[in-house]
Amino acid sequence: MRPGQYVQIAVTDTGSGMPKDVIDRAFEPFFTTKQSGQGTGLGLSQVYGFVKQSGGHVKIYSEAGEGTNVKIYLPRFFGKASAAENIAAAPSRGRSGECVLVVEDDADVRSYIVETLGTLGYDVLEAGDAEGALHLLDKHPSVHLLLTDVVMPGMNGRKLVEEAKRRRPSLRILYMTGYSRNAIVHQGRLNPGVDLIQKPITSEHLGSAVRKALDS
User: Fold this and answer.
1) DSSP characters for 158-209?
2) What is the pTM (predicted TM-score) of this model?
3) 3-36 per-position pLDDT tens digit
């Protein structure tokens, strides 16, 4: 942390607490101790990302059987408060009949994305691999956008898109990955300039990227 004054937000519970190995991984994207389908492992990683982007720090203090204390440190602002509040824009929503095919091999991540797009008004189909996605694409001519992970077992995202575009040249494409854009492009997995979003993905970012891809 940079030297200076900070505002601290502390949240404490009296729950079961966390052992050290869980604390060490708590902020990792997609890490969760919940059963499959009950958690995405994205909540704390998004908190961590927000705090760090704000120039702050977050620390977990916990003891098994005693509870947990999370302390967030945010840089103190020196200056006058703005008279007008900045109200965050609502996530971009889908239009009637717009259908998105989500292809993601991680069931928890796929569930989160499908649920988020559904709440934004899109019709959503889902597949855990490229073969399943192509089957759905053939079966549902209503698909407008293919939202696919880049790195998957078997046929990867790039090969899937090549096959999908051969069948449906007008299909819109949006890639997603847990790697950086530079890493994906430099490894030759994708061409420069493609539409790509990085995981973990907030609902606002996901909604905006899907809307942009459909309107392009």
Assistant:
1) HHHHHHHHHH-TT-EEEEEESS-HHHHHHTTSS-TT--EEESS--HHHHHHH
2) 0.60
3) 999 999 999 999 999 999 999 998 887 788 877 6
